[in-house]
Design a protein that fits this description.
Strand order of the largest sheet: 1-2-3-4-5-6-7
Oligomer: single chain
CATH topology: Porin
Structural class: mainly beta
Strand content: over 45%
CATH architecture: Beta Barrel
Number of helices: 0
Distance between the termini: 52 Å
């Protein structure tokens, strides 16, 4: 059982959704022994009241753990590699662009598999006011 913190950034290019982020975890908060960086591709649906997202992609990690040697002394053993990452999250908006949510996530690799629930703050830059122009790549949100 470890505690961790992370930061994710969701963005889109036309109608394709991406995620980039990092996370650290350790036995105590901010005493990390495992660091991972991730990029993901996925699905995202945002309305005025909620945000739903699901992403999957590769993760790159580095870390350290103690190995007991013959003299009963723990020596650091460093590791690094690549693995996979998947997450599903839902956020409810308190006001249009600010909300809170929960995420189920999993990181899978040869050294350390992480499964968990993360609670997060949600900030969106989606609201830009009433759209007054036409963009063929974006579905209109204005009611007629």
């Amino acid at each position: 059982m470890q505690q961790g913190v992370g930061l994710d950034f969701h963005f889109h290019i036309r109608r394709q959704y991406f995620q980039a982020g990092f996370g650290i975890s350790g036995d105590k908060l901010l005493e990390n022994n495992h660091t991972q960086f991730k990029v993901g591709y996925g699905y995202r649906k945002e309305t005025a009241k909620y945000n739903f997202a699901a992403f999957a992609g590769p993760t790159f990690f580095t870390g350290v753990h103690g190995v007991l040697d013959t003299g009963n002394i723990y020596k650091p053993s460093f590791y690094q590699g690549a693995g996979g990452y998947v997450c599903v999250q839902i956020a409810t908006k308190l006001v249009y662009d600010i909300g809170v949510g929960a995420e189920l996530f999993g990181e899978f690799n040869y050294k350390q598999n992480l499964l968990g629930v993360r609670f997060f703050l949600f900030f969106s830059g989606a609201y830009r006011g009433i759209k007054r122009n036409y963009n063929p790549h974006v579905r209109s949100e204005n009611k007629k």
